[in-house]
Design brief:
The chain is an alpha/beta fold. A hairpin with a 5-residue loop joins strand 5 and strand 6. Helix 4 packs parallel to helix 5. The chain is globular and about 55 Å long. The protein starts with 9 loop residues before the first strand and ends in a 14-residue tail after the last strand. The model has no long low-confidence stretch (mean pLDDT 87).
């Protein structure tokens, strides 16, 4: 709901995670809204294999057909996951692909396309947090189904709490981030663009 999908739209759904269950749920939600999803499945492991196996000629044209679709797309939903291992990729292959990918980014920027990015739990992240995949899913996935009204209320509660006490975020790597808002304006992201 937070993506604002409308009936009759063409919606690019970028699966950067590789979780079929999540992709299927998002595609069905787009269809239920009366829109047409166009999936692009490029999880980290896929991109790493692509950079190793595809020719430079193909990588240089990575954007060609995708750009034609993107120029007709009304909005984008990105299912974000683990990042590909760029450091160990063939650097010429990666650079060639990245230049082609930049062509798609330019289309998005020129068209100012609405985009919703959702961080999807992955086994790697669950392990880093000392959790099972099911435990992490139970914490994070309900937020993806929240309405924009529910998100606005949750953001409002967090903003009020941060006005009085520091907001503390802890990771499984022993890192702690403390946010003391002070007098700064805090803009909440309720999924509407």
């Amino acid at each position: 709901r937070g993506a604002g999908v409308r009936m009759g739209e063409l919606v690019a759904v970028r699966d950067c995670v590789g979780r079929q269950d999540i992709l299927e749920a998002v595609l069905l939600a787009v269809e239920a809204a009366g829109a047409v999803p166009v999936p692009q499945i490029t999880p980290a492991r896929y991109l790493e294999k692509l950079w190793r196996s595809a020719s430079l000629t193909h990588l240089a044209q990575w954007h060609r057909h995708r750009q034609m679709i993107l120029e007709r797309t009304d909005r984008i939903i990105v299912l974000s996951g683990d990042r590909p291992d760029v450091a160990n990729a063939d650097q010429q292959s990666f650079a060639t692909w990245a230049q082609a990918e930049d062509q798609l980014t330019q289309v998005e920027e020129v068209r100012q396309m609405p985009c919703m990015m959702a961080s999807i739990p992955t086994p790697k992240r669950a392990y880093q947090l000392g959790m099972t995949q099911d435990m992490l899913d139970a914490h994070l996935l309900p937020a993806l189904a929240a309405s924009d009204v529910d998100l606005a209320h949750a953001i409002g509660r967090a903003q009020v709490a941060a006005m009085h006490d520091p907001l503390v975020i802890r990771t499984g790597e022993g890192c702690v981030l403390r946010l003391q808002r002070g007098d700064r304006l805090w803009l909440g992201d309720d999924g509407r663009i």
